[in-house]
From TrEMBL:
Its main location: endoplasmic reticulum. Gene3D superfamilies: Zinc/RING finger domain, C3HC4 (zinc finger). GO terms for cellular component: endoplasmic reticulum membrane. Interacts with DIO2. Interacts with SQLE. Keywords: Acetylation, Endoplasmic reticulum, Membrane, Metal-binding, Transferase, Transmembrane, Transmembrane helix, Ubl conjugation, Ubl conjugation pathway, Zinc, Zinc-finger. Transmembrane segments: none annotated. The keyword Cell inner membrane does not apply. This is E3 ubiquitin-protein ligase MARCHF6.
Amino acid sequence: CDQADNILVAFSADICRVCRSEGTPEKPLYHPCVCTGSIKFIHQECLVQWLKHSRKEYCELCKHRFAFTPSKYILLVGFFF
């Protein structure tokens, strides 16, 4: 593996468009709208926080209404914090 291959791998990992972190088994990435490319993915927790802050039910970029069902755990954490 040369340096060019390492750079390609580094840029090909999917990341959350809000926190810029990769998905994990505990915090997977979702794509709740029709955006594509580097802005396609988001963690559920990040989306819930964004929805609370923005008070919008649709993506400001693609105008698609978000399609997801937050887990009960996420709703409880959002309620208490």
